[in-house]
Structures are given as C-alpha cells and as structure tokens.
Design goal:
Blueprint: E1 35-39, H1 43-55, E2 60-64, H2 67-77, E3 81-84, H3 93-103
Parallel strand pairs: 1-2, 1-3
Length: 118
C-alpha cells in the first residue's frame, strides 16, 4: 500500500519541512505604564479613543481640542504616544507633527491610517 502523498512521513529529505513551533499572535503590552495624548477637534472622537485606551488598561490619557492646546499639553505632560487628527481648524495635524518633531528630545515616529509613515 502506498502512503498518502500529503503524509509528512512519506516525504523524502529534500521535501521534508522542519516543524516550527507556532508563534504567539498576541504579545501582552502593559498600557498602564504608557501615557497618551489625544489631539482632535471632535469631542466624540476624543471620547471614543479615550474610552478604548481606558478599556485596554491605560491610566494616563490627556486630551486636547486643537493643535495649539495640543502643543502646550505635549510640552507639559510629555506623553509617550500622541494620537492626532490630521484635519483641525487652527492648524492641521501634519503641521502639529512637524512642530512636535522640532522640540521632541526622543525619536518621534508617526503613523496614520490615511498615508504612509511620516
């Protein structure tokens, strides 16, 4: 009787694939030690993001209604992560990001859902 072609024991040396233990898809992250700043002109969006962050265990979440206020809050609170809107009335999110990059003492990386990393 011939072995089934998909049986691993039936494979010869060049075709045999070593077993690799499965990777963990989720790496636990302690958000309680990370501070966030949300900069958005829409109160509903700020509340939604704040609720999600609190739900994930974050304790330190700051909010700002615009770019000017966001810059002051970023300077005083020094958050680990800043979540910003790109379209705001006083000045847009890209200008806000550039201004934060100028005075930030640590490396700054920015991600957006609408454009590649800046």
């Amino acid at each position: 009787m011939r072995p089934h072609p998909h049986d691993p024991a039936a494979l010869t040396w060049p075709q045999r694939v070593p077993r690799v233990p499965p990777r963990r898809a989720f790496v636990p992250l302690d958000l309680a030690s990370i501070s966030f700043l949300i900069v958005d002109d829409q109160p509903f969006t700020r509340r939604l993001v704040r609720t999600m962050l609190h739900g994930f265990g974050s304790r330190e979440v700051y909010e700002s209604a615009g770019g000017v206020e966001g810059l002051e809050m970023a300077r005083t609170a020094k958050p680990n992560i800043i979540i910003t809107d790109l379209i705001m009335p006083d000045f847009n999110g890209l200008r806000f990001i550039k201004m934060v990059k100028r005075w930030a003492r640590r490396p700054a990386r920015f991600r957006s859902s609408c454009c590649p990393a800046i």
